[in-house]
Specification:
The protein has 148 residues and is of the alpha+beta class. It has three helices and seven strands, in the order βαβββαβαββ. The chain has one domain (2-147): Gcn5-related N-acetyltransferase (GNAT) (Aminopeptidase), CATH 3.40.630. The chain has a seven-stranded mixed sheet with strand order 1-2-3-4-5-7-6, sandwiched between helices. The chain starts with a strand and ends with a strand.
Length: 148
C-alpha cells in the first residue's frame, strides 16, 4: 500500500468522496443536505490517498481552520479495505504535515452515531469538545479536538 499527497482537485479523491457521501445519504437520508455547503471544496485541502496497485482505496484531508488549527475532513476507506489501520495511518501522515506547517491543533466534526469514526479519533487522542460554529446547536454531530 502506497500513499501520496495531492489536493482536493484530484479526480481519485473526488471519486472516493462521492462514495463516502452516497454511503452517508443511504444510511442517514436527505437530512444530510444541510451539510452540503460546509463540505464543498471552496478552500484548498491537503489530501492523502492510499493506493493499492495504483487504485485509490482510501482518503483523508485537512483544510486550514484558523491560524493555529486545521480541520480534518473526508476520511474514507473502501469497505473491502477497512480494519487494516489505513485511516489511522492516513490521519497520522496528515497530522505530521500539519505540524510541519506550523499548526498546533486539529478539529474533527463527525456524526454522533458514527461509532467507528469516533473510536478511531479517540485512538488518535482526539477529545470531545463543545460543538462550535454552525454546529453549536446541531444534535446530529459531535466535535473533537487534538493538540499536537
Amino acid at each position: 500500500m502506497d500513499t501520496i499527497f495531492t489536493d482536493e482537485k484530484d479526480e481519485r479523491f473526488v471519486k472516493l468522496v462521492g462514495e463516502l457521501d452516497r454511503g452517508y445519504y443511504e444510511r442517514i437520508g436527505e437530512e444530510l443536505s444541510k451539510y452540503d455547503s460546509y463540505n464543498e471544496f471552496k478552500h484548498p485541502h491537503v489530501v492523502i490517498l492510499a493506493l493499492d496497485n495504483n487504485d485509490a482505496v482510501a482518503c483523508a484531508s485537512y483544510r486550514v481552520f484558523d491560524d493555529d488549527s486545521v480541520e480534518f475532513k473526508r476520511v474514507y476507506v473502501k469497505r473491502e479495505y477497512r480494519k487494516r489501520r489505513i485511516a489511522y495511518n492516513l490521519i497520522g501522515h496528515l497530522e505530521k504535515s500539519a505540524i510541519r506547517n506550523g499548526f498546533k491543533y486539529s478539529y474533527i466534526v463527525t456524526g454522533k452515531n458514527n461509532q467507528p469514526a469516533i473510536r478511531l479519533y479517540e485512538k488518535l487522542n482526539y477529545e470531545l469538545i463543545d460543538n462550535f460554529g454552525r454546529f453549536r446547536n446541531d444534535d446530529m454531530v459531535i466535535c473533537m479536538k487534538k493538540e499536537f
